[in-house]
Adiponectin receptor 1a (Pygocentrus nattereri), 378 residues
Amino acid sequence: MTTRHHGNNGSSSDAEWRVSEDEENMEDVELAELGPLLTGSGPKPRAAGAFPDDDDDDEEEEEGQGLRVVTLPLQAHHAMEKMEEFVHKVWDGRWRVIPYQLLPDWLKDNDYLLHGHRPPMPSFRACFGSIFRIHTETGNIWSHLLGLIFFLFLGTLTMLRPNVSFMAPLQEKVVIGMFFLGAVLCLCFSWLFHTVYCHSEKVSRTFSKLDYSGIALLIMGSFVPWLYYSFYCSPQPRLIYLSVVCVLGIAAIIVAQWDRFATPRHRPTRAGVFLGLGLSGIIPTMHFTIAEGFVKATTVGQMGWFILMGAMYITGAGLYAARIPERFFPGKCDIWFQSHQIFHVLVVAAAFIHFYGISNLQEFRYGLGGGCTDDSLL
């Protein structure tokens, strides 16, 4: 900023003019920082006025002009005003999506999704209102919200079936109910996380832990009815396998509480933990197939459906870990067909296929009248 000479009488007015210009420039900078988050088309940011440094002291003394420096409390006052204005805009739902590079670090997860991100919104009302807007999380939210509604309806119908449809009504409904409980909790935690994770860093961390815990609960709940019916006449192996699955599931939930587990750097770790939990079912599957024979295992034992379910889970987890297809088409899958959305759809489809398989096993068990033979696990 150049100095101006107006004589002795003009020094005071010139200093006031400088302070006014400095305050105006500061407000412009603050607006520029919040600009991507607001819908208003405020003034374009200009370079803030430079304050005099030590090198300019001699020149100021010669010119006889003093500059009033904007104090820190005044800066804080302006910042609070702008933040209050921003919160009101978020609360009213008047926000717009921003590009990836403008996100704070705690909201940066997938750098292949270049546009359409929600800004930080410290309002639960605004977060839940965003489910009706188009952004990078729209598909993730609705895929599991609709899945949640579907499984709540399906589970209610199953639990309300008459007792005469079961050989051991209470026991079997508890077993099947464990699957529905795992599915409902997984889908519920998932859609809640994708809805509110832009609220704040603390909220994001909390709900990400619930999200990952829900995945472990779904895997554990899926094992329970399958092991119950597949090893119906072999209670000892059934108890062993159920115990192992529960221990591994609880271990996965404990690992999910680690704060760094949710960071982008540990994306392959997350996929590996849940893949490992799911693949632990290979041992009881091999046991069942060897004991019953391949033909019986794939027909009566519904092994074909369970293998399809596993393939869908593994495919979804693999796409999620590798971030395919957006890795090959950066910026083209920002809103739809990103890896996380594909993973969500495959999870819902795989869970339904699993339910179909255990329903067939339950009907087969009912058809046998609850009897067991010495050479049969079923």
